[in-house]
Amino acid sequence: MNKNKGFTLTEILLAVMIVGIIGVALASLTTAASREAGVGRSKILLRNNLSIALRQLREDIHSASRVMYVRGRIDSSSAGDVTPLLVLAKNAGLDNTIINDLSSPSFITYCFVTGGTQATPEGALSRGTIYRREEENLPSWNSATPVCGNPQTDDDFEVFLHNVKYIPPIGSAGDAQYYPVPLFRLSATDSVYSEEDSTTEDSRRKDLGSVLVVKLITELPSTPIVNDVVEETFMLPNGFRVED
Fold first, then answer.
1. Could you tell me if 143 and 69 are in contact, meaning their C-beta atoms sit under 8 angstroms apart?
2. Are 69 and 142 in contact (CB under 8 A)?
3. Residue 202: what pLDDT?
4. pLDDT tens digits for 214-237?
5. Distances (CA, A) of 232 to 54, 178, 187, 193, 215
6. Contact present, 131 and 160 (Cβ < 8 Å)
7. Tens digits of per-residue pLDDT, 147-171?
8. β pairing state of 141-142 and 124-135
């Protein structure tokens, strides 16, 4: 009798099936782990960028002698629109003359360029950029609005924050309130504050709030979408500082 024993075809097919199932499961686990690792790295990148930006903003506000402009909500915006967000004066009194002889006055302007990538909710756009400019000359004004020009080509501007998401305050669904960003607003109002609207020192003292609320979302249009949200409150200077 032939005593050589082997695997039957059924046993071979069953073994191949088991190995295939295990292989698919391992591949799925590897892909999921790789995706989660990528998401984690992206979140860390967004968080680090936000932290650096907020540190710069905090330093600017801390060293400011007065606030000249706060945008409030951006009610509507299209891809490529340029919107001033905040203007601060450093070492400058209400008449823009020097306060401390140790340094010259300077003026800091933050401007937002809306991105062109469609996002959710409806009407939102991602891939925007906030730019920062510090200069010794007074900012130009168009009526009561500071002029940003084109921060993307103006060498006086530097990138403050990339991948900024824009969300309008009210969606097309009627009364649905969204989370409006980017938002630089005084605690008392969502509307614009501009010292160019104030004709006297007394009105400037009265109109300017003491707290600045900043809300930002940075988002990468990836799959899955990765984003990070920050909401922070800053104590503002009281609108002016005068020499003794």
1. no
2. no
3. 55
4. 999 999 877 788 899 999 999 887
5. 9, 18, 11, 19, 7
6. yes
7. 999 999 999 999 999 999 999 987 5
8. unpaired
Q: Is 211 helix (H, G, I), strand (E, B) or coil?
A: strand
The CA-based diameter of the chain, rounded to the nearest angstrom, is 116
Ordered DSSP codes for 68-102: EEE-B------TT-EEEEEEEEESB-TTS-BS-TT
What does the CA dihedral 177, 81, 43, 41 come to, rounded to 10 degrees?
160
Nearest Cα to 115, choosing from 244, 219, 187?
219
- Report whether 61 contacts 236 (CB < 8 A): yes
Q: How far apart are CA 120 and CA 123, in angstroms?
A: 7
The predicted model scores a pTM of: 0.80
pLDDT exceeds cutoff 70 at 200: no
**11 has pLDDT over 90:** no
